[in-house]
Design a protein that fits this description.
It is a single chain. The protein has 226 residues and is mainly α. It has one domain (2-225). Helix content is 83%, strand content 0%. It is built from nine helices and no strands. The longest helix is centred in the N-terminal third of the chain and has 48 residues, at 2-49. Keywords: Membrane, Transmembrane, Transmembrane helix. Pfam families: Bax1-I.
Length: 226
Amino acid sequence: MDRYNTIHTTTTDAQSVEIHEGLRAHMNKVYGIMSIGMLVTAAVAWSVGTSDALSAIFRDPITGSPNILGWVAMFLPLGMGFLFGGMINRISAAAAQTFFYVFAAAMGLSISWIFAVFTGISIAQTFVATSAGFAALSLWGYTTKRDLSGFGSFLMMGLIGLIIAMVINLFVASSALAFAVSVIGVLIFAGLTAYDTQRIKTDYLAHAHAMDQEWLAKPAIMGALS
């Protein structure tokens, strides 16, 4: 009996180590895909934003206002995000990863206008500050013992409300509303960062025993999108 308990304990410990090593590899894959996606986004945004010829396709060269294609480019990532969420379970991991990189390119197209408004230094400073904040919040979401699952629906409702407020402010151009959107947006995305990190971790642990690499690859891509 003692021998059985020893073997059982050893097997359980080995499985636990394997799962945690798999979790580490899974999270590294999520952040790896996310990093490549950010590079694609930055490359597209810089290429379009610093080219007068390409910018003129999406914005009026004189006023800088978006034309029809500009509006399409602005909201394209939002539509693709909802589409991706609905089709993730019906496509292969390879197709999902390809879709993600196309989404990253579309995101770069939608924010390319920032190069016409802000200096390269201010964009770089914002990127560094945002990256540091993301890293801290993601680390907290990964290590905290507090269950954040209850915040998911609340944060998504807040995100939808934020998008509606941003669209309204495109027409009313209220500085007070713009400030409120900025503050609330920071809080919502801070919460989503911690929530999504914990969700990615718990999803992996819930399915790790099956070791279905095809299934596990999809949450990694979806996590990078989040």
